[in-house]
From TrEMBL:
<dbReference type="InterPro" id="IPR006140">
    <property type="entry name" value="D-isomer_DH_NAD-bd"/>
</dbReference>
<dbReference type="InterPro" id="IPR036291">
    <property type="entry name" value="NAD(P)-bd_dom_sf"/>
</dbReference>
<feature type="domain" description="D-isomer specific 2-hydroxyacid dehydrogenase NAD-binding">
    <location>
        <begin position="114"/>
        <end position="292"/>
    </location>
</feature>
<dbReference type="GO" id="GO:0016618">
    <property type="term" value="F:hydroxypyruvate reductase [NAD(P)H] activity"/>
</dbReference>
<keyword id="KW-0520">NAD</keyword>
<dbReference type="InterPro" id="IPR050223">
    <property type="entry name" value="D-isomer_2-hydroxyacid_DH"/>
</dbReference>
<protein>
    <submittedName>
        <fullName>2-ketogluconate reductase</fullName>
    </submittedName>
</protein>
<dbReference type="InterPro" id="IPR043322">
    <property type="entry name" value="CtBP"/>
</dbReference>
<dbReference type="Pfam" id="PF02826">
    <property type="entry name" value="2-Hacid_dh_C"/>
</dbReference>
<dbReference type="GO" id="GO:0003714">
    <property type="term" value="F:transcription corepressor activity"/>
</dbReference>
<comment type="similarity">
    <text>Belongs to the D-isomer specific 2-hydroxyacid dehydrogenase family.</text>
</comment>
<dbReference type="GO" id="GO:0030267">
    <property type="term" value="F:glyoxylate reductase (NADPH) activity"/>
</dbReference>
<dbReference type="GO" id="GO:0051287">
    <property type="term" value="F:NAD binding"/>
</dbReference>
<keyword id="KW-0560">Oxidoreductase</keyword>
<dbReference type="GO" id="GO:0005829">
    <property type="term" value="C:cytosol"/>
</dbReference>
């Protein structure tokens, strides 16, 4: 039997060229599979694609043209929550499963979302600077203008896994919670003490708006000028989902004009954040470099999960997490798992 061949770009973000696949191979070794690297560009991938039984997607965009060159691949595996760098419709058209890791490091993202909420609310960075710059007397007057956290309203835009874990954390702080997500049923929300609401209600009622939508064609620039205009002038915007879901220029304008009070952002429309971004100079904004999911277990957990998903599909079984409708070779079955708002996380 021919060894299954897994194609992956070299020198990608979470391994090193020429090696570093021991954790992925824990599940793949019994199949006799081999991971083969190609140069991280479209032409090199296309040249190697016909021999690939699977693709380990990382470090670059996977376009429709690249996916069309996969003549026998059964799966494209992403060791991330988001799959926005893979043309999922193109993979679906080819009958190729696209897998992700939607539940591997969501605890960390929920922690980060809660951290950004608390830090922006209590003006953590600004208070720190006051002490360092000898402006001790300015700290208390600033906080005397800030309402108590208990009893404030936290609104979720999308209520997937990360949002649900964030809600569990927020409940301990006495926050009232509302959420907009047309793909999540009322019982799921109410079990966590969250009230279903329209998008307009979430924006207009919330003291904190937390964005958790994935980057898809339907959610790109989901929040624009008109949405920020609906928010309270005292509101704080949090985003640990995906940067392109927000019109960043509209967010900047809302912050500059005082339409909203502040923001805590882990994701941006363009990453890394350009050095001339107005967000960098804003004292009422806390930024982090798209690292909400990171922790000591981050790399090990997602590498093992990636190997497990590829091994499952290559052995003719369903993966644990499939983001597209697909026909697995030899199964004769079709299974629908929507990649909709609830599938999101860094979302």
């Amino acid at each position: 039997m021919e060894r299954p061949r897994i194609l992956t770009p070299a020198g990608a973000s979470f391994t090193v060229a020429g090696g570093g696949y021991d954790l992925e191979m824990e599940a793949l070794e019994r199949l006799g599979a081999e991971i083969v690297e190609c140069a991280p560009n479209e032409e090199a991938f296309i040249a190697a694609a016909p021999l690939a039984d699977a693709v380990y997607a990382k470090g670059m965009k996977f376009t429709a043209r690249m996916i069309e060159a996969l003549s026998k691949a059964k799966v494209i595996t992403c060791a991330t929550v988001g799959v926005d760098y893979v043309d999922v419709p193109a993979a679906t058209a080819r009958g190729i499963a696209v897998t992700n890791c939607p539940d591997t490091f969501i605890e960390e993202v929920a922690d980060h979302a809660m951290m950004l909420l608390l830090a922006t609310h209590r003006r953590c960075i600004e208070q720190d600077r006051m002490v360092r710059e000898g402006r001790w007397g300015e700290g208390r007057p600033q906080l005397l203008k800030i309402p108590r956290l208990m009893g404030s309203t936290l609104g979720f835009v999308a209520f997937g896994r990360v949002a649900r874990l964030t809600a569990m954390r927020a409940k301990a702080f006495g926050l009232r919670m509302v959420a907009y997500d047309p793909f999540v049923d009322e019982l799921t929300m109410s079990a966590l003490g969250v009230v279903p609401a329209s998008l307009d209600q979430v924006l207009s009622e919330s003291d904190f708006v937390s964005m958790h939508a994935p980057d898809t064609a339907d959610t790109r620039r989901m929040l624009t000028t008109k949405h920020f205009a609906r928010m309270k002038k005292t509101a704080i915007f949090i985003n640990t989902g995906r940067g392109p879901t927000v019109d960043e220029a509209a967010l900047v304008a809302a912050l500059q004009s005082g339409q909203i009070a502040g923001a805590g952002l882990d994701v941006f429309e363009v990453e890394p954040l350009p050095k001339d971004s107005p967000l960098i100079g804003m004292p009422h904004v806390i930024l982090s470099p798209h690292n909400a999911s990171a922790s000591a277990r981050f790399d090990e957990a997602r590498k093992r999960r990636a190997g497990q998903e590829m091994a499952l599909v290559l052995s003719g079984r369903w993966p644990m997490s499939c983001v597209n409708p697909t026909v697995l070779p030899g199964s004769g079955l079709r299974r629908w798992q929507p990649y909709a708002m609830e599938r999101g996380p860094n979302s």
